[in-house]
Amino acid sequence: MLKLLAALPSQTQAQQAEQLAKILTVLRVANIDDSQRLTLMATVIDASDQLIATLRQSYIYETGALSDIQIGYVAQIKSLYYSMIMVYDRVIRHKTSLLNNQRKYAASNGWQRYFNGDKSSSTTLAIAIYQTLQMYQKLLGEEALCYQKPSSYLWHKINQLYYLAYQYHAAEINMSVTAGTSVPRRFISVLPNLFIQSIKCTCHASSQYSARPTFVT
């Protein structure tokens, strides 16, 4: 996988997007440890960010309606973000299921008052939630860049993740020892900032929605 990522700069933009989509699919279905999955995702995100930045240059300063080619670039970027979300979603589902089973076992044996949960699973869950929130925030930002009407679906997913973070105490976890990710030391310290940035993206898109001819329903 690392060799495939290293070869991306020598490929066309379309080839890079296709290769990244394949890599993300493999990461989503691969039978590997979730911590390893997250570490590999950090490398994939770096490569994806470079491609996304290049694709955006074709329309970021556009003042009129986007061309079909530019709309295609927007679709590629959104597709990459959603593919990343699907990888993180697998981690979230697995870890929440594991933690729920542990809680049920502790409760059935009368150990619930002593049960603090699997710290490793909780940390991995916190990282996956944080990274997923960032992906949804970037999708909101993409809508703002394209002067699209803010998506209620994105806000629904963001709200779900905020609730999940507090439900599993992910916001209180110290992740300073976590390697291979860009997650800050304390998740809780950035939750308000992520929320505010998401609101700014939505407000910008709402205020500018009619400034450019609509090209996406």
Kindly report how far apart the N and C termini lie. Answer: 36 Å
- Written as H for each helix and E for each strand, in order along the chain, the element string is HHHHHHH
Average pLDDT figure: 79
Our Rg estimate from Cα atoms comes to: 19 Å
Number of contiguous helices: 7
Q: How many strand segments?
A: 0
Shape: globular
Task: Give a concise summary.
The protein has 7 helices and no strands.
Please give a handful of descriptors for the protein shown.
0% strand; 69% helix; disordered C terminus; 217 residues; mainly alpha; single chain
Please tell me about this protein's structure:
This protein is mainly alpha-helical and 217 residues long. The protein has one domain (12-207). 69% of the residues lie in helices and 0% in strands. The chain has helices at 2-6, 13-29, 34-56, 68-108, 119-145, 152-167, 187-207. Helix 2 runs parallel beside helix 4, helix 3 runs antiparallel to helix 4 (68-108) and helix 5 packs parallel to helix 7. The longest helix has 41 residues, at 68-108. The radius of gyration is 19 Å and the shape is globular. The model is unreliable at 184-189 and 208-217 (pLDDT under 50).
What is the secondary structure topology, with strand pairs?
Layout: H1 2-6, H2 13-29, H3 34-56, H4 68-108, H5 119-145, H6 152-167, H7 187-207
Helix pairs in contact: 2-3, 2-4, 3-4, 4-5, 5-6, 5-7
